Amino acid sequence: MSEVIAIASQKGGVGKTTTAVNLGTSLAILGQRVLLVDLDPQGSIAANFHLEDINVEYGLFDVIVNKIPLALAICDIGLDNLEIVPTNIKNEEEEINYFTHALQVRLLKGILSKIRKEYDYIILDCPPSLGTVTINALTAADALLIPVQPEYFSLKALGKFLRSIKNIGKKHNPQLKLKGILITMFDRRLKRSKAIIGELQYSFKNIVFETIIPRNSKLAEAPAVGKPVALLDMSSPGAVAYFKLAEEIINSRNRRTKTIMKGISGEQNV
Ligand SMILES: Nc1ncnc2c1ncn2[C@@H]1O[C@H](COP(=O)(O)OP(=O)(O)O)[C@@H](O)[C@H]1O
Ligand SMILES: [Mg+2]
After folding, report:
1. N or C: which end of the chain has fewer CB within 10 A?
2. Which residues lie in coiled coils (predicted)?
């Protein structure tokens, strides 16, 4: 049975999509069967693989709104073990329709339940808000991964986000676990980033991933060529970091974890 991991944060530009694409690819290269589901109406996953260049017939929009089977929206992108569900939203009207249908918070959970056994990991790339679509993801997920940039406001925002997540979990998914907080776009040259990482590790003991994703030009360039970083430059620091994260995730799979409802304590849990 697959593990469903939602990648969420209330902030945009923190590395959610980059993590979904590159963690998903690394897991796939390591032999795990992965489905990447783009929940963001901006369609960033499709953009990262240049799927706009080919004719995508169906996406999550059609599954959520027009009730077509999920199997019809799964795209083969020519990589072993990795498949994608794009959002495929074409205009504002469709976007409003999509968020309105997502008021039914258990919709995605029902949709994913039919294909869960075909994958080892299903990764949900969430929009940068706690709206109906993200609530669907948190209801469908087994675990949550939160990317955080080591910046001044991150600590406070993270505490607030975790409280909101806890309330959502209590109401819709008491079994939800916190996979971990992932530090992204770390720039070694900045002293204050190091200090903030220290604070994050102190304040959120045991729930911050050991792997830290560096700010890396290859990671930023990869979407322009439509490839995950591992296929652009396997030995770049960004690719190496996402492989390390994939290994950390595979190794943590069998660890005993408490649910998100039990307070901040224990291993990789909230
Ligand atoms: N570790 C990194 N190093 C360099 N650039 C990055 C890194 N992570 C993300 N980026 C770039 O930052 C921008 C925002 O990242 P993205 O993953 O789209 O964020 P989100 O999905 O949270 O909005 C993108 O242009 C992406 O290429
Ligand atoms: Mg994104």
Report:
1. N
2. none
